[in-house]
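input
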Amino acid sequence: MSDNPILEIDNLVKVYGSGKTAKRAVDGVSLQIKRGAFYGLLGPNGAGKSTTIHAITGIAQPTSGVIKIDGVDVVKDYKEARNKVGLSPQEFNVDIFSTPEQLMDFMGGYYGIPKDERRAKIESLIERFDLQKHRKVKFQKLSGGLKRRAMLGRALVHTPDLLILDEPTAGVDVEQRHDLWEYLKELNEKEGKTIILTSHYLEEIQYLCNEIAIINNGKIVAEGTKEEFMKGGKSVEQRYLEITREDNKNNHA
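output
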C-alpha cells in the first residue's frame, strides 16, 4: 500500500459570485489526509465544510488550488478521481420512490460496474447494513436510521478508496446512531477505509475520529490528532468552542 496521502488539498480557494457580491466560501485551505485515517472535519454552518467537500467530489469547481485523491487531480482527471471517492451527503438527494436495492443498483450502473459484479456487491452491502427486510421498501417509507444506512450503501457500491460522510447521523435516534457508529468503526478499522466525517454531534467525532481539523470563516484554524485536541482532560466539544470563539473574536477585532 502506498504511503502517499489519500487526499491532498493545496491552497483551495472557492469564490461564489463576482465583484462586490463575491463571497469567499473557502479561503486557502490546505490539508493532507493519510490512508486509513478517520478524519473529523468540524466547523459551524457556513464555515466552508460543505464547499470543501463539494470541491473534493467534483460538485463544485475550485476557483484556485489543487485537490488530489490518491494522486489523481480532481479537475484534470475528473472521472478517475470521482471513482475513488464515495459521498453520503447530508441531504437525501435520491428518488424517494426507489428502494435501497434500486438506489445502489443505479449508482453501481453509473460507475459502470458490470451487472453480476454489481448484484454481488449490493447483496453484501444489504447484509452489512442490515437492510434485508427493507431492501424493497420505498425510500420515503424508511425510518431516519434506515435511510442513512441506504445512503451509506449507495456511497460504497463502487468500492471507493475514500468515503466522505456529511452529517451521517442527522435525524437518527440514539440507538440507531450508535449502530451506525459501529458500522463506521468496522469500515475504518477492519477494512482500512479512509473516512472523512463532518458532524455537529461532537461526541460522535470524539468517539470515531483519530484526526481532526476545524474550519472557520473559510480557513483551517486548528488541526491535529484527537489526543492533541483533548490535552488537559478537555473534550473535543470544549476545545472546538474555545478555538472557534477565539477565531471569531480575532476576526471581528
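quick obs: The mean pLDDT is 91.
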